[in-house]
Amino acid sequence: MKLISNSMIYFSGSIISKLLSLLSLPFLTAALSPEEYGVVAMLILVGAFVSSFLSLGLGTSIGEMYFSKQDFFHRSSVLTTGFLVILGTHIVYCLLIWVVGEKISEVVFHSKSYVYVSVMMLLGQAVQNMVFPLQLKVQFEEKFKIAALAMVLSAIVSLGMILFLVVVEERGLNGYGEGMLIGAIAQLLIYLVLVRLDYSAKKMLMAVDLIKKGWPMILSFLFLFVIQNGVRIPIEWYGGLAIVGLYQVGASLAAPMGMVTTAFINAWTPYALGFSSRPDDAPESLGAVTRLYIVIMGIIVILIFVLAPFLAKILTAEKYFEAYYVIGLGALWHYFSSIFLMLLPPVYFANEVARTVVRVQAVTVVVFCAICIPLINVDPLMGAAGSVALAGFVLVFSQLIWNKVLRAHQYVQIHYDIWSIVMLILIPLGGILVLFVDIFVGYIESVLLGTAMIALLVCVVFASPLVSQLIKELQLKIVRLK
Question: Is 267 a member of any domain?
C-alpha cells in the first residue's frame, strides 16, 4: 500500500506538469514550424549526448553507495558530494558552450543561423542536469510531496516563460531557447530551496569513490542515448528537419506514458532496494508487483494507441497530425524501459550493476543499429519509432535471460509466471495491431479492437491475487472506519 500511495503522490506532480506541457503544444505547434521543432530536437540530441559524459555515471553510483549503509551521515555525504561533483562539471560545460556556440551551430546545422538558440538551449539543458542529485535525495528519502511540488512549480515557470516568449513576444526559436534556460534556472533554485543539503558533509575521497563506481556507467548512458535519441540523425538524413520535428512532437505526446512509469519507478526503487537486507522476502513480493505492473501498464499502452489520432488532432496544429504514428510506439519504449528497471533489484543485491547493465545494453544497441537504418529508409517516421520500441523489447528480454538463465545461481530469483512473459509479448503486438488497423482499415475499427483488448486485460487484473488482497485490505479499512 505504501508503494501505491507514494506512486500516486509522485504521479500527481507528474500529471500536472505533463498536462501543462501537453496544453502548451497547440500554441507552440501553431507558432513553430516542423523544421523549427526539428532544430529543437537536434539540440536536445546534442545536450543528451554531452550529458552522458558529464554525469560521470553518478546516477547509478550515488544510489549504490547511498543504500550500502544505513548511517544517516554517510547517506548525507553521498548526496551532497554527488551534487557538488555534478555542479562542478556542468559549470565548466556552461563556460565551454558560451565559447564554442558558433562552432556547435556550424557542425550540427551547417549554418550560423542557429548560434543563439544553440547556446540558450544547451545552457538550459546543462542547468537542468544539475538538478538530478537533488531529485535523487527526494526519491531515496521518499519525500514524494516535495518532489510533486517541485515538479509543478518548475513546469509552471518553464512553460510559462517559453509560451510568453514564443507566442506572445513572437521570438520564435530564440524565445524557446531563452524560456528553456530561464525555466531551468528556476527549477534549480526551487529544488535548492525545497531540498536542503548538508554541505558540511561533503567528502573529497567520497567524490573519488563515486566517480570510480560511476564511470563504467558512462558507456551505459551512451548506449541509452543511442537507443532513445540516435534515430534523429538518420531521420534527418532520410526525411529532413521537418520529419525530425514531427518525430519530436510525437515523442512529446507519448510523454504521459513516461510520466506514469517514472512516477512508479521513483517509488519502486527505494521499495525494491529495501529488500537488500531481507532478500528472502523479495521473490514473492517483487514478483507479484511486477506481474501486476506488466498488465496494468499494458492497458495504458493500448489506450494510448487507441487515442493517438485524437490526441494529435486536438493538441497540435494540422501540419503535425502525422506525429500520431509515433505516440503509441513511443509509449511502448517507456513501458519496456520501466520494466527493464524493475528487473534490476537482483543485480543490485549482487553488486553487479555496472557490468551487467552495460552488457545487456550493448546487446540491445547492436540489434537496434542493425534494424534502425533499414526501417527508417522505408518510412522515416514510423521506422524510427518502431526501431526504438523494438529496442525496448530486446532490452527487457535480454535482462530476463541474464537474470533467469545466465545468473540463475548467483542472483535472487524473483518469481514471474509464464503468463507475465506471454503478456509482455502480446500487449505490444496488440498495440501495433491497433495502429495498423487504424492506418489500413479505419479509426472506428481500431477503437473497437483496442476496447476489446483493454476489457480483456482488465479481467486479468481483477483476477490477480495481489489485487484481490488489496481489495480485501481496503474493505477491512472501510469496515474499521465505520
Answer: yes
Q: Report the largest interatomic distance among the alpha carbons of the chain, rounded to a whole angstrom.
A: 70
Q: Which of 421, 423, 445 is nearest to 433 (CA)?
A: 445
Q: Is the pLDDT of residue 185 over 60?
A: yes
Does 222 map to a domain? no
Nearest residue to 282 (alpha-carbon basis) of 273, 293, 295:
273
Q: Which DSSP category does 240 fall into?
A: -
What pLDDT, in 10s, does the model give residues 63-76? 778 777 777 788 88
Q: List Cα–Cα distances, 229 to 257, 341, 368, in angstroms.
A: 17, 19, 12
Segments forming the whole domain that contains residue 136: 1-215
**Sign (positive/negative) of CA torsion 176, 181, 187, 190?**
negative
DSSP 8-state class, residue 417: -
Say how many domains are in the chain.
2
The single residue listed with the C-alpha cell 540516435 is 230
What's phi and psi for 302, nearest 5 deg?
-60, -40
Q: How confident is the model at residue 247 (pLDDT cuts 50, 70, 90)?
A: very high
Please answer whether residues 196 and 175 qualify as being in contact, where contact means their C-beta atoms are separated by less than 8 angstroms.
no
d(CA 15, CA 103): 38
Residue 421 one-letter amino acid = I
The DSSP call for residue 280 is: G
Q: Which three cell numbers stand for residue 111?
A: 549554418
Residue 103 lies in a domain: yes
How sure is the predictor about 10, in pLDDT bands with cuts at 50, 70 and 90? Answer: low
Between CA 204 and CA 159 the distance in angstroms is 37
Residues 210 and 356 in one domain: no
Which of 5-19, 105-119, 138-152, 340-354 has the least mean pLDDT?
Answer: 5-19
Residues written for the chain? 482
Residues 6+ positions from 360 with CB-CB distance below 8 Å = 395, 398, 399, 402
Round to whole Å and give the CA distance between 227 and 219: 13
Give the confidence band of 384 by pLDDT, cuts at 50, 70, 90.
very high
CB distance 300 to 261 below 8 Å: no
Residue pLDDT, tens place only, 74-109: 888 888 888 888 889 999 999 999 888 888 888 888
User: How many Å apart are CA 179 and CA 40, to the nearest integer?
Assistant: 13
Q: Is residue 379 exposed (0-12), middle (13-18) or buried (19+ Cβ within 10 Å)?
A: middle
Tell me which residue of 438, 412, 442, 455 sits closest to 327, measured CA to CA.
438
